[in-house]
Amino acid sequence: MGQLKFEKDFSEKLNKREIEPKAGSWEELSRRLNSEEKSNRPIFWWIGIAATIVGGILIFSILFNKPISETPVIVNAPEEIAKEKIESQQISFEKPASEEMREPEKASVKPVGNIYPKKEPVAKSKLASIGKQHESSKTENDQTQKEPDLLKETKNSGIPEDVIAEASTKEKKTGEITDAEVDALLAEALTKINGDRNAKSVSGNIDARSLLFDVELELEQSIREKVFDVLKEGYFKARTAVVNRN
Amino acid sequence: MKVIPLIKNETQLIARAIKNNRGAQQCLYDLHSGKMLSVCRMYVKDLHHAEEVMLNGFFKVFKYLANFKNEGSFEGWIRKIMIRECISFLRSEMVLEFKEEGLEDFNGSFNNIESDINVDEIQQIIDSLPEGYRVVFVMYAVEGYKHLEISKMLNINIGTSKSQLFKARKMLQEKLKTQNISGHGTVKI
User: Fold this and answer.
1) 3-state SS, residue B187
2) How large is the average pLDDT for residues B100-118?
3) Tens digit of pLDDT for each residue in B45-91?
4) What are the chain A neighbours of B38 within 8 Å (beta carbons)?
5) Measured between alpha carbons, how far is A14 from B138 in angstroms, rounded to an integer?
6) Can you tell me the distance from the alpha carbon of B88 to that of A241, in angstroms, rounded to the nearest whole number?
7) Contacts of A38 in chain B (CB under 8 A)
8) Range list of β-strands (E), chain A
9) CA dist list (Å): B2 to A243, B29, B33
């Protein structure tokens, strides 16, 4: 059923027709458009703020839940690192031991401090006790005041006292200590120190916990930084979007 | 008085209007408001209501202007919005009712009448039709929609659309004949 003749005529005439709207119709429409724009703006802002808050919460929850799940991995890492450090120290410490014969002043303190920075309080207390003993021994025997620098520094470095005492008695007896004897004594002291430290590191709760705490602290700090970076980035994006929209 | 657009390129005007440039929006309004009010008037009898519907239509045009993809003419896009707005207005006024018709032969022959009446008389004749007939007739005969499209837009059966058109045509023929007898316009059979 196609278009009839009168329909064609109707269509042509009606499609050509234009009816002028009343005066002020545009102003009315413009007012409505303005009010629509104004009403839309606060909604846009509220949606933006809500989205930012929700996004922030999500990011926080995701990032702060991660370390808890990864704790076992973090716990294992410091022990291995500590063992590796100890092993490497054993190797590196043996070499200076031979060099210590030539330059005993340099080799005595440094390695201990470098390897175990966490044990400083323990070393300090030891030093204090050794210092006290040393002071008491000053009064008893003047000869101990003449101890060579090497022995003083080895005391400070945590070499067992029995080794030092042995060395001092030998010195007393013979009057002189040969290089070979010093070497042997140092090697003995070293093995004792290492034995003690290995035992501590195997059973040592203090090292593992402190290391773990340090690692966790570092991780937490890095996560916070990441979160702040993400939030900052999101804020700048939202701001540029708003500016572009306007 | 119409504002003569400084920028005649409609695409540029649309691009500016999307960014809520009131000047560009006014230019577009001035360009199309006359025709769109005519479209609305075909569906809505009262001119005041037709104008209200047209303003609602233009409000939606500018609100959703970013959705216009430059596929087809801008006038066609606005026209569609206006027709939908008219239909929803008639629905809200509870005047748009369609009776489900039984299966009849709607392909009956019509006398191919030629009319020579002016546009105001045409509008009067169309206004005299019942709402349902008028809407389907205008959509089919003037706007060029198919029955399937009409049935989808009005949410009716294709058969109902056909029956409405059939009855509208019948009534219009009768009216044209009567007008011829009474001496208004020229109707040739």
Assistant:
1) strand
2) 64
3) 999 999 999 999 999 999 999 999 877 899 999 999 999 999 999 99
4) 14, 17-19
5) 10
6) 36
7) none
8) none
9) 34, 10, 10
